[in-house]
Amino acid sequence: AKAAGRNRFQRYTRQMSAAAEERVLLERYLRHAIEFKELEVHFQAKVDSGSGQLVGAEALARWHSPALGMVAPIRFIPIAEESGLIVALGELILEQTCQQLQQWRTTGFDVPCVSVNVSVKQLELADFPHHLAALLHRYQLPASALELEITESVIMAVDNAIDTLNAIRALGVKLSIDDFGTGYSSLAYLKQLPVQVLKIDRAFVLGIGNGQDNEAIIRTIIGLATSLGLSTVAEGVELQEQIDFLYAEGCQTIQGYFYSKPLNPIAFQQQWRSLNPA
Ligand code: C2E
Ligand code: CA
Ligand code: CA
Ligand code: CA
């Protein structure tokens, strides 16, 4: 029994060190990938729940490493957060998004509004709002073309978050709370935030049709949004039944595989150009 215990322990430490090694390796590759701009941005459509029209998109980071192959965000984003690389990564994605929006505009493809995920470490940079203004200027984009997605936990974690968010809002850039309902922000707190959009987490959407709890939560979020004058986006929508429920409850915007997976810029333009209003 002792020997078995020892073996188990050795196996455990070996696994631990394998995981730690992989982490170090990934971080090293990621640093290189950011420096040499190996990361790309893909776009996932946001669609009006009533008309099916394109109303915007979310920019999502994609990493195809020559050495490692495709690495999913769920693997590299946490490492980027822990190592601080998320600032440079977020920067790269923001810039690539602006560049792409400008390029689309020159061809007459005006995606109304693209949202970019922003990390707490970016928001903590004192000059983030100035930097944002400079980017919009450099790529000649109206502020309304851009939205930032921020999680509740991020907002709670940043000192002076409200000041920073107000400065961003003053530029005319929209703000949304991502994965809404999974954090703990109070109603009173939410009322103070200069946000325009609540994104309903996929976990709740998954529960539509599978019992009352998730449906009740979604109704509550939409009711809350309505009473505060905010709009709602539901993410992870895969089924017609989910769209029917969300539309009936007053959720304006749908994002999910039902309409489209995240696509590279060329594929996104091909799929959505003809359906674009104007
Ligand atoms: P998120 O911000 O909640 O993004 C939505 C995720 O759900 C994306 O995963 C998207 O591909 C996926 N998704 C969309 N529709 C569906 C659907 O119908 N079904 C299913 N099963 N999934 C769907 P992705 O691209 O793997 O990104 C995962 C997370 O990584 C994101 O979650 C976000 O938190 C983070 N992330 C991605 N890109 C960036 C970035 O540029 N900066 C930062 N800070 N985080 C990022
Ligand atoms: Ca997001
Ligand atoms: Ca989300
Ligand atoms: Ca989510």
Q: Report the count of strand segments.
A: 9
Query: Biggest β-sheet, characterized?
Result: 8 strands, mixed, barrel
Structure ligands: ligand C2E, calcium ion
Task: Report, as a whole number of angstroms, the end-to-end distance.
Answer: 74 Å
Helix content: 40-55%
Sum up the structure in keywords:
binds ligand C2E, EAL domain-containing protein, globular, single chain, binds calcium ion, 278 residues, alpha/beta, 9 strands
Question: How do you describe this structure in short?
Answer:
This protein is α/β, with parallel strands linked by helices and 278 residues long.
Please characterize this protein's 3D structure.
Helix 1 crosses helix 2 and helix 5 packs parallel to helix 7. The longest helix has 34 residues. The chain is globular, with a radius of gyration of 20 Å. The chain has 12 helices and 9 strands. With 278 residues, the chain is an alpha/beta fold. The structure holds ligand C2E and calcium ion (CA) (3 copies). One calcium ion (CA) binds next to loops.
